[in-house]
Amino acid sequence: MTSKKRYSTILVMGALAVCLASTIRAAAQDPSPGAREFTMTAKNYEFVPSVITVKKGEKVRLIITATDRAHGIKIEGYDIDQMLKKDDPTTVEFTADKAGTFEFKCSVYCGMGHRKMKGKLVVEE
Known about the structure:
Strand content: 35-45%
Shape: flat
Number of strands: 9
Largest sheet: 5 strands, mixed
Distance between the termini: 66 Å
Number of helices: 1
């Protein structure tokens, strides 16, 4: 192979690698389309908002920021238990496929008020 052909092959392969990397990065950053989004905070032994209401079958996206220390969010009945690092927005996505009221709570011990750090996910028919 001549050096000119080798150089052309390297350029093409490099361009393909850049395109593939961009596509993978975009796919990883793109949230699920059509999800119902809620921005939340976890701080001082509370979630704000503390009640999330959605319709059964909706895709749900919670963007939660722990603002005072590390916390966690565990949603009973939905097999979700996510660590929330301080000042690092964390995205939790799921489909609300069960109707009812489901408690969510902090799953990382955060101090004396930890046990009262709760909220409700209401999934309506």
